[in-house]
Write a structure and sequence with these properties.
Elements: H1 23-38, H2 40-49, H3 52-57, H4 64-77, H5 86-100, H6 104-120, H7 127-168, E1 172-173, E2 176-178, E3 185-187, H8 194-211, H9 218-244, H10 249-253, H11 256-283
Antiparallel strand pairs: 1-2, 2-3
Helix pairs in contact: 1-4, 1-5, 1-6, 1-7, 4-7, 4-8, 5-6, 6-7, 7-8, 7-9, 8-9, 8-11, 9-11
Length: 285
């Protein structure tokens, strides 16, 4: 007779902590990496020439819409249960390599490759397919908008300047408008163009639809047009304010004022997107 009893089970071999990410999460991560490296020049410039407070409030010179889209891509990708396949690792390696090449167009190409491959290899209703669409939407301001401006910069920027000139009642020459007070001449550059701001509206519109699993129909397309129009109008207001208050140029162009306009654009467009999503969800039940 014995009073001894077992106190536990000794494992036959040590256990290992296993962390497995779905392919949506992994592709979202490398896509975000490529997007950030495509904006590396802007980020470094902001950190170099602005105070830490201005850099933070200005979101390192990157639109709040792009930050929101990147977070949403990760959120949607984390819903993907499927694991990586053998050929996925090859594409991921290529995207990471392109992201770290010291030229911006390489990271842009990596983002495009990441989005296209994930879209082509994911089932229609899978979270990974929705993640791919958000990544592809990011190529709008990071790739296609820039290409469009390079090809048609003259007429596009001139149109912006003429609209601003009409609003504040001043002379315009090409993409240059004068302050009504005569105390300044302002050149509208690529990043101040309406094309850039409207492409951000498309990013937010796509992100909202993918995040809340909305089917794209004619009414939701109309919401996207309204969002693009709002971003266009807000950009004209900011440029007009620069012309009317030239002494506040730094504040409105890249300082706290510019950040406030950025947040106003995000909030206004987000409200429109939220309204569109709520209505789409109600009619698509």
């Amino acid at each position: 007779m014995t009073l001894a009893r077992p106190v536990g089970i000794v494992p036959t071999r040590p256990t290992a902590l296993r962390l497995e990410l779905g392919r949506g999460s992994v592709f979202a991560a490398v896509g975000i990496l490529a997007a950030l490296n495509a904006e590396a020049g802007q980020i470094l410039s902001t950190l170099t020439f602005q105070s830490p407070v201005e850099a933070v409030t200005g979101l390192a010179g990157i639109s709040a819409v792009i930050w929101v889209a990147m977070v949403a891509a990760w959120k949607i990708g984390s819903e993907e249960p499927r694991r990586l396949r053998g050929r996925d690792t090859v594409v991921i390696s290529i995207v990471v390599a392109l992201a770290f090449l010291p030229v911006s167009f390489a990271a842009q190409a990596g983002l495009l490759l990441c989005g296209l491959y994930l879209f082509a290899t994911s089932p229609r209703r899978a979270p990974a397919r929705r993640t791919a669409l958000v990544l592809l939407a990011l190529t709008g301001p990071l790739i296609w908008g820039r290409i469009l401006l390079n090809l048609f910069a003259g007429p596009i920027l001139s149109l912006d300047a003429h609209i601003v000139g009409a609003v504040i009642g001043t002379h315009v020459d090409g993409n240059i408008f004068l302050a009504p007070s005569g105390r300044g001449r302002f050149v509208i550059g690529d990043l101040c163009s309406s094309v850039h701001n409207m492409s951000l509206a498309i990013v937010l519109w796509t992100t909202a639809a993918m995040l809340f699993k909305i089917r794209i129909d004619s009414r939701y397309v109309a919401v996207g047009v309204a969002m693009a129009g709002f971003m266009f109008a807000l950009n004209i207001v900011r440029l007009a304010a620069i012309g009317l208050f030239p002494e506040d140029f730094a504040y409105l162009h890249f300082g706290t004022g510019a950040a406030l306009f950025g947040w106003a654009g995000l909030i206004g467009a987000a409200l429109l997107a939220g309204w569109g999503v709520a209505n789409a969800a109600a009619r698509q039940r």
